[in-house]
Amino acid sequence: MLAGPYATMMLADLGAEVIKIEPRGGDISRQVSDEYFASLNRGKRSVCLDLTGAEGRQSLGELVGTAHALLVNLKPSAIHRLGLTYSSLREFNERIVCVAITGFGLNGGDDPAFDYVVQAATGVAAMTGDPDGPPTLPGYSSADNSTGLTAALGLLAQIVSGRGGQLDVSLRDVMLSQLNYHASAYLDAGVRPVRRPHGAHSFYVPAQIFPTAEGHLALFITHDSFWKSFAEEAGVAGFWQMAERAANRDAVIDLVTTALAADSAVNWQERLRKWGVPAAAVRTLPEALDDTPEAVVAVGPRSAVGCPIHVDGYEPDYTPAPTLGEMNAPTG
Prior knowledge:
Blueprint: H1 3-13, E1 18-22, H2 34-38, E2 44-48, H3 54-65, E3 69-72, H4 76-81, H5 86-89, E4 97-102, H6 115-121, H7 142-161, E5 165-170, H8 171-178, H9 180-189, E6 207-211, E7 216-220, H10 224-234, H11 242-247, H12 249-260, H13 265-273, E8 279-281, H14 285-291, E9 296-299, E10 302-305
Parallel strand pairs: 1-2, 3-4, 4-5
Antiparallel strand pairs: 6-7, 7-8, 9-10
Helix pairs in contact: 1-7, 7-8
């Protein structure tokens, strides 16, 4: 519903011809809402095929014969049953790149693997939220979106290599990979990740969300030079070395919290950015979109966030999401 469509929409934005193969009833995400489907399928064309029948199989083979890649986002059993793997399709095109997006791997079984389930299963939810509260899920589909981008990267890399073949990309593996330094700390040193108040970083101090006189501020101080600049602007002193700040986390957080209470989040953002200190007032998505009109594009009668990859000299052709089966020959 999301990972595969997002991957191929990014490719369409960058100029690829993307044909969306749908069952006769259409992609299930068409039933969620018009906005949901449109936000993930612009720039594509649609064809309806019954892949369980000989006619649909023949049509698929014809498409594969002239394509660079086939990306599939189904349960492993369905991918194998419908013959959507390289071993089944190489007869039509030796250089076809077949990408399978699944929950736990192409040979990992059919356990349900929606985004939130994978976030829970890989430790993301356990690491998120207040230490005294329950595990929390991020407010957007981080596993699906991350897997879509990873799959698109793998697809392009394999095409550039000039080899056909099967790529296996699972939501589980992508999310474990994205927990990189947390995973290494546990694997190499037995350090278990813990939830910290206000989303505090496990290494850097201070690096978290702070309350201010009005609103909240995200402050991310990674270098001693940032701390010195912050201290100058905020009128505080001490803890000049990174190791010293980490060893005295509570004292540093108390010091910064007291200092930030003297002004609003918006004002602190402006005051600190003049020094090059990473800081941002917490805003809502509507506020962020209103402040970033250049990120918004027109897609037919709708508006959407455009492609995040900007190529010098190239402008994406943002066309609306396809109508169901628009490529099918008229019948009757």
